Amino acid sequence: MAQTVQRHPLAAQAAEVLLSRIKAGEWPLGHKLPGETTLAVQLGVGRSTLREAIRELAGKGVLDPRQGAGVFVTAVDVVEDWESKLRRASIVSVIEARVAIEAEAAALAAQRRTPADVRALRRALAQRVVAGQTPEEHVDADMVLHRAVVTAARNDVLLELFDGFVPRVRTAMIDMLKLKPVASPETDQAAHAALVQAIADRQPREAAETSRTHLSALKAALG
Amino acid sequence: MAQTVQRHPLAAQAAEVLLSRIKAGEWPLGHKLPGETTLAVQLGVGRSTLREAIRELAGKGVLDPRQGAGVFVTAVDVVEDWESKLRRASIVSVIEARVAIEAEAAALAAQRRTPADVRALRRALAQRVVAGQTPEEHVDADMVLHRAVVTAARNDVLLELFDGFVPRVRTAMIDMLKLKPVASPETDQAAHAALVQAIADRQPREAAETSRTHLSALKAALG
DNA sequence: CGACCGTACTCCTCAGACAAGTAGACGTGT
DNA sequence: ACACGTCTACTTGTCTGAGGAGTACGGTCG
Known about the structure:
Chain A has 223 residues and is mainly alpha-helical. The first copy, chain A, folds into two domains: 10-73, Arc Repressor Mutant, subunit A (Orthogonal Bundle), CATH 1.10.10.10; 82-222, GntR ligand-binding domain-like (Four Helix Bundle (Hemerythrin (Met), subunit A), Up-down Bundle). Helix content of chain A is 70%, strand content 4%. Chain A has ten helices and two strands; from the N terminus they run αααββααααααα. Chain A has helices spanning 10-23, 36-43, 47-59, 82-88, 91-112, 115-130, 135-152, 156-179, 185-200, 204-222, and strands spanning 63-66, 70-73. Chain A has a two-stranded antiparallel sheet with strand order 1-2. In chain A, α1 crosses α3 (47-59), α5 (91-112) packs across α9 (185-200) and α7 packs antiparallel against α8 (156-179). Residues 1-6 of chain A have low confidence and may be disordered. Chains A and B meet through α3, α4, α5 and α8 of A and α3, α4, α5 and α8 of B. Chain A binds a DNA duplex (30 and 30 nucleotides) through residues 9-11, 35-37, 45-49, 51-52, 65-71.
C-alpha cells in the first residue's frame, strides 16, 4: 500500500495527517493540540513545515492558533467544496435537483414577478434566438434566460443553488450539443416562450409544469 | 470606531493583503505570482511568514504553489461557507428551497422506493408519535422521517442539499415549538402518514402535493 | 527539424535564534 | 480567606541563512 510518488509536499502531508487525527477524535472540538516542537518531532518534520501545515488547516477553518496559548481545534471536519461534490455526482442527479429548484422558482416567479422581471425575461428570450451559433454561446444565452427566471422568484437561497449548478450543467450541455445539435430549435424556443408567458400571466402551476417538462426532456437527452 | 485590540499575526495580515490584491485582479485566474523573495520584500515580511500566508490561502483553495514552477491563482475569491450563507438567509427563503427539494424528492421516492425504504418510512412514522416530548426530540424525530423520504429518492445531490438545510431549519422549528406547541398533533401525524402512503403506493404527484402543502403550512407558521 | 541537456529560477525543508504573548503559580498585603 | 500584582515557564510569531529538489526555457547537437 506504499504511495507510488509523494506528489504532496511534506507540509501538505502533515496537514492531512493532522486532519485525520482530528477526525479520529484524538483532539476534540475546542481542545488544545500539543506544542509545535512536540508535534514536529512526532511527525518527523521541521517546525516551519509543521507551522505551514497548521496554517493550511487554519485556512480551512479547522485550527485556530493563538499566540502564547496554543493551537485549538475549531471544527472537526472540512466543509467540502460544492463544486467538487457536484463533479462527482452523476449528471442525472444534478439535473433532477435542477428540476426541483427551477420548477419551484418558476412558480414563485409567477407570483412575484415585477414588470421589470418580465422585460428582462423577454429580452433574454429574444437573445436566445439571435446569439446561438457556437454551442458555448447557445448554452450561455440559455443560462441567462433560466437565471432570469430564478431571479424573478426573489429567493436568495434558490438563486444561490442555481448558480452552484451552472458550471456542471454548462459543460455537460456544451459537450452534448457538440455531439448532437438541437433537434428542432423551433419547439425548443416555443417551450421557453411558454414558460416566460406563464410567468408574465401569473400562472404558477403552468409555469412550474412547463419548466418541469422542458428540463425532463433535457435529462432524457443527457442521461 | 477604533478597533478594539483585534490584532492579527503578520502572516494572516499578509494573507489578507494578497487576497485583496487577487480580488482586485492584479493577478488573474491561472496567473503566476511573483517569487517568494520578491513578494516578501514587497510586503515587508520574512520569507517564512509569507510562506505561511500562501499556505493559508492554499488551504482556502485560492492559491496553488507548485515546486519549481511558482505560485498560481486557482480561484479569485473564497467560496463562502454554506452554513453561514444559510444563517444570513431568511427562514422563509430556506423553507421555500426546502419545499422545492422535498416535493421533488417525494415524487422520485414514489417511483424508486424499495420495500426496505417503505419499512424505514413506516418505522420513522411510528417513532414520530412515540418520541415526541421535548421540542428537540419531536423535531429530531420529524427530521428522521423527512430524511428517509429524501433517501428513498436515490439522489445524492438532493440528499446533500437536504442535509445542508437541516441545522438551520431545526433550530428555527425548535424555537417555534417552544413558543407555540403544535396545534393538533393528530392532523400533523395524518399528513405525514398520507405522504408515506403515497410513496408506498407509487403515486408521485400525490406524494409531491402532500409534501408541498405540509411544508407550506410550516412556512406560514414560521414566516 | 527534433531530441537532448544544461542552467537559471522556483518552491521545499530544515535549523537556530530571539521576540511577543498567555496562563498559571506564587507571594504579599489586606 | 480573599484580592491583587508579579514572576516564570511555556506557547506561538518572526526572521535569517543554508542547502535540496523540481520545473521551464533556451541552446546545442545530430
